[in-house]
């Protein structure tokens, strides 16, 4: 049957005992199928290629009801134009259906890149950001369909946590680069994260003063004597003291093994850290802590955990008790590393020396302590100025 498929004519078609077609007289290949169930659907038939290799395609445009006859005809005309230009609408739709989703990309990034090239802590952090932030928002989208506008809107919603927002954005940028360079799922070069402006981050600068260090020492002494609200492991206390005395990252002490402790050379010989192999020099006070710390058989770790052969996972709860006792509720464990550096800067040590002690790879990382290194000069200027002022002060007779 051939008719011009209009709203009234499509609506007037009644189901029969078997499927039948109505071909449109205006657009060749455009047709309506009426099923015995009463369902009606629009199709478009066309040829791909020529000669013996030619193939006939007849993809569905859509169901009547979801589309009107005029809407279906417009799509058929668009497809006809693509076919005349050598296109294949059905093939393009199939490829789009088979295109990987962002969830597929996240999984491949974790398995093929992060697990192979990242340290456990970095892997855990990437996984957390993907599961908590990225997958809920982008997981169901096709990789090629994600736009810069969508990512910018997502980033803007995280403005209350600028540091986290920027880290998630940086991870998403890395994932798109992995998609282009390793998987070739997307074009290399430009990707939708590029050009999105990061939030301004205010670097936290918290250093313990001499008085605060004294209060921390008193709180640790009370913990050792069992005078706090909860019994605290001597290994936790030792870890906190080592963080203050060495400037090490808390993960470096938390996972420290006895085989990496060289008491004769007075240093820690880390086989792995954030910056690779690293030596941390030990002061006499730090050496004494390690010399007196009890070891546990069959446990290679210095800061032993509750389970056999493991190290502590974290010291969040005991650290909360200790800093509360010391009146240092705003101090993080990482601030102890800053405090180690600040003491060196105030003593007049050069920034390269401080950077070497901390294991910084970039001098810019150590530059945050530059203002502290001015303190000895300021003290000297104050002393000289006061002496000159005293000499020039006019003394009057009473």
UniProtKB/TrEMBL annotation:
Tyr recombinase domain residues: 203-382
Top-level taxon of origin: Bacteria
Ranges where the Core-binding (CB) domain occurs: 100-180
Recorded family membership: Belongs to the 'phage' integrase family.
Record Pfam families: Arm-DNA-bind_3, Phage_int_SAM_3, Phage_integrase
UniProt protein name: Tyrosine-type recombinase/integrase
Stored CDD domains: INT_Rci_Hp1_C (cd00796)
Organism: Pseudohalocynthiibacter aestuariivivens
Keywords annotated in UniProt: DNA integration, DNA recombination, DNA-binding
């Amino acid at each position: 049957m051939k008719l011009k498929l209009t709203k009234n004519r499509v609506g007037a078609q009644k189901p029969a005992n078997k499927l039948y077609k109505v071909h449109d007289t205006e657009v060749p290949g455009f047709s309506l199928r009426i099923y015995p169930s009463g369902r009606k659907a629009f199709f478009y038939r066309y040829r791909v290629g020529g000669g013996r290799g030619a193939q006939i395609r007849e993809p569905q445009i859509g169901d009547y009801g979801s589309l009107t006859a005029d809407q279906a005809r417009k799509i058929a005309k668009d497809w006809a134009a693509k076919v005349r230009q050598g296109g294949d609408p059905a093939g393009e739709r199939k490829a789009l259906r088979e295109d990987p989703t962002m969830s597929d990309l996240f999984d491949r990034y974790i398995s093929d890149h992060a697990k192979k090239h990242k340290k456990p802590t970095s892997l855990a952090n990437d996984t957390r950001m993907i599961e908590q932030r990225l997958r809920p928002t982008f997981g169901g989208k096709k990789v090629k369909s994600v736009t810069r506008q969508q990512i910018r809107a997502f980033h803007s919603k995280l403005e209350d946590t600028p540091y986290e927002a920027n880290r998630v954005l940086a991870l998403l940028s890395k994932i798109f680069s992995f998609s282009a360079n390793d998987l070739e799922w997307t074009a290399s070069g430009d990707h939708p994260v590029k050009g999105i402006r990061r939030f301004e981050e205010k670097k936290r600068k918290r250093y313990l003063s001499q008085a605060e260090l004294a209060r921390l020492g008193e709180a640790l002494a009370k913990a050792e004597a069992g005078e706090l609200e909860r019994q605290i492991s001597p290994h936790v206390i030792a870890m906190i003291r080592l963080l203050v005395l060495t400037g090490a990252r808390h993960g470096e002490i938390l996972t420290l093994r006895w085989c990496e402790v060289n008491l004769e050379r007075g240093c820690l010989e880390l086989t792995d850290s954030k910056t690779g192999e690293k030596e941390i020099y030990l002061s006499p006070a730090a050496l004494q802590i390690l010399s007196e710390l009890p070891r546990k058989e069959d446990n290679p770790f210095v800061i032993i955990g509750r389970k056999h052969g493991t190290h502590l996972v974290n010291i969040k709860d005991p650290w909360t008790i200790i800093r509360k006792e010391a009146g240092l509720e705003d101090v993080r464990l990482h601030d102890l590393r800053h405090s180690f550096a600040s003491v060196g800067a105030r003593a007049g040590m050069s920034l390269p020396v401080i950077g070497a002690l901390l294991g910084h790879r970039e001098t810019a990382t150590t530059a945050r302590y530059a203002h502290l290194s001015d303190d000895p000069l300021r003290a000297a200027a104050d002393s000289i100025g006061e002496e000159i002022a005293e000499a020039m002060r006019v003394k009057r007779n009473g």
